[in-house]
Amino acid sequence: MFRNLISRLFGQDEPTTRLSGQDAEVALAALLVRVARADDRYSKEEEQRIDRILARRRGLDMTEAAERRAAAEMIEAEAPDTVRFTRLIKDRIALEDRSEILAALWEVTYADGTRSPAEESLVRLVAGLMGVSDLDSGLIRQRVTREMGLDEA
């Protein structure tokens, strides 16, 4: 099943073909994993935050969310460079979902309670590739840190 998703994501399918449901969520989860791994420290807190994000977005229980994350970890390892990977996701996920995706990326960035320049830099890159302005990205980051109860990171 997930091998088919890799083919659909990175194969020769028409790039304007929208991903739906589970495919879109696993692709997003792979991007969340990529951000979490950006500083070479993929912590339990980051895994748990990804699971909560996936559960919240699709009404999954935590076991189902963890299974999606595990699939996403495999997909992320096979995904092309971040620029190509993000463009593939951008082309296949609706515009109105991009701010929510960016908020999820910021959540994962701060899940372990530490600032990581590598993770922050990657989220900023992804924001630009997804067509979200620096100003909007900063406002989303501020909202996320406030909601997470963090001092302004």
Automatic annotation (TrEMBL):
Residues covered by the Co-chaperone DjlA N-terminal domain: 26-141
Record-linked Pfam families: TerB
Entries under InterPro entries matching the protein: DjlA_N, TerB-like
Protein name per the record: Co-chaperone DjlA N-terminal domain-containing protein
